[in-house]
Write a structure and sequence with these properties.
about 85% helix, mainly alpha, 19 helices, about 0% strand, disordered N terminus
């Protein structure tokens, strides 16, 4: 009996679904058993993060958790659930839901003065704005998130913010690739400082992508190879998928269109496996562009139509203008001139609607303000360092002066002692001299006495007469 591959595939899907449901049921039972506290809060968060189920399922459970925590007046738990629900909504492309819940999380976390949670909620909200191509709001929100993360002393969140800030700077219509590189390298520097270089896969991939745009293919290859090796060694599907996508673009830029298509299809398989819709959209677009270069317009049309379908279905707009332009070019080559004109106009209108000149000006002002703040912080740091150096110099000068004074004092004391010794020796010599003179006088007097006085024998002889 031959078992067909698709039957095995269906069996695996059913088994995976049962395992996922079993895991979710187990977590729900665990949540029910737990008393109100952090463990219960984080168990609720894990249930919300079970993305195998649909958003309605996630939302219904989140509403139950919110009701439970409101009864116990656990404000932190409410804030955390809104944050997790907003994050889940982004994964399901429910962007209005994501904005609503993340904004609630921000309001509540500010009331709690919880800078750490305020930071991550801002960064997640910024990514929501980025996904719907509202780059001005994305950059503004990222900067606010980085500021809160700095106040909270959370380097991991700061690195995450810089990573996504670089992505928004890279993706906005008036690209600033050098600034994007600045933000990416800043994030990598932070990761290395906190010994989390293993989390730098996406950063390495994005740096490689920027170098591709700058046509520095040597550096592009170097960083993309590093990213792919890191993703493979740590089994990080997201890093693997997006590095493959970046390699697709690199091969396309170098004119190796067949290789680009092969790598692009491999990247597409990752996105389809995990239902990662932005990745599916970009993979189809890149595959279409490479088929277009090979003049295989039939396959190019199938790929670009798939990209348009997913973009419209899930409201993912940031790449849609470029997708419409590709569709317009394919239609023109196949002789569908009216269709080509329609898609060209759609691309232009969409660009105007999602990114105006004013938006560009506002973003530049925001970035300039942020850079000024960064420079002010650096100046303050340098001033503190200078002040510390001056203090150290002053201490060294005082220590040197004290040392000189100590040496001078020692020399002075030694001179005094030496002078006293000389005086004592002189006095001793004088005394010894006087003693000698006295002894000499005594001896002299004795001699005179002996010469003048009669001897005992003389006296004895004269007395006996």
């Amino acid at each position: 009996m031959i078992i067909r591959p698709y039957i095995i595939f269906l069996f695996v899907l059913v088994l995976a679904g049962k395992l996922s449901a079993s895991k979710t049921d187990s977590l729900i039972k665990e949540y029910t058993r737990q008393k109100d506290g952090l463990n219960k809060v984080y168990t609720a968060g894990r249930i919300i993060s079970q993305f195998e189920n649909n958003y309605d399922f996630v939302k219904s459970h989140a509403e139950r958790f919110l009701a439970d925590f409101k009864k116990t007046n656990n404000k932190y738990a409410e804030t955390y659930i809104y944050y997790k629900l907003g994050s889940a909504a982004v994964e399901y492309s429910e962007y209005e839901e994501a904005k609503k819940n993340l904004q609630k999380a921000i309001v509540l976390s500010k009331e709690l003065s919880n800078d750490s949670l305020t930071a991550v909620a801002h960064i997640r909200l910024g990514f929501t704005f980025y996904t719907i191509a509202d780059y001005e709001a994305a950059i503004k929100t990222y900067l606010e998130g980085i500021d809160y993360a700095s106040k909270a002393g959370k380097p991991r969140s700061i690195s995450w913010g810089y990573n996504l800030l670089g992505l928004a700077t890279y993706a906005k219509p008036n690209h600033d690739y050098k600034k994007a590189l600045y933000y990416y390298f800043k994030a990598i520097e932070i990761n290395n400082t906190i010994n989390e270089s293993h989390n730098s896969g996406m950063l390495l991939m994005r740096i490689g992508s920027v170098y591709t745009r700058l046509e520095d293919y040597s550096n592009a290859t170097f960083f993309l190879d590093r990213a792919l090796k890191l993703g493979d060694s740590l089994n990080q599907p997201v890093v693997q998928k997006w590095t493959l996508e970046s390699l697709t673009v690199l091969y396309q830029k170098k004119g190796d269109y067949k290789k680009a298509i092969d790598v692009g299809k491999e990247s597409l398989r990752f996105s389809l496996k995990f239902s990662e819709f932005p990745g599916i959209i970009i993979s189809y677009r890149n595959i279409a562009e490479n088929y277009f270069q090979l003049k295989d317009y039939k396959k190019a049309t199938l790929a670009i139509d798939s990209s348009i379908y997913y973009s419209l279905k899930y409201g993912i707009l940031q790449t849609l203008p470029n997708i419409y332009e590709t569709k317009s070019s394919i239609s023109e080559k196949t002789g569908l001139l009216n269709e080509a004109l329609v898609y060209f106009k759609r691309a232009s209108e969409l660009k105007d609607s999602i990114f105006s000149v004013q938006n560009s000006k506002n973003i530049n002002e925001l970035e300039a303000r942020f850079e000024n703040n960064e420079k002010e912080k650096e100046i303050q740091f340098l001033n503190k360092e200078k002040e510390t150096d001056n203090k150290i110099k002053n201490v060294l000068i005082i220590a040197f002066i004290l040392a000189l004074l100590s040496v001078a004092l020692v020399i002075f004391i030694l001179i005094k002692i030496n002078t006293a010794r000389k005086q004592m020796k002189l006095q001793k010599d004088i005394i010894e001299e006087k003693q000698k003179e006295i002894l000499a006088s005594i001896h002299y007097a004795k001699r005179i006495q002996k010469s003048l006085l009669p001897t005992e024998k003389y006296l004895e002889r004269n007395l006996n007469r």
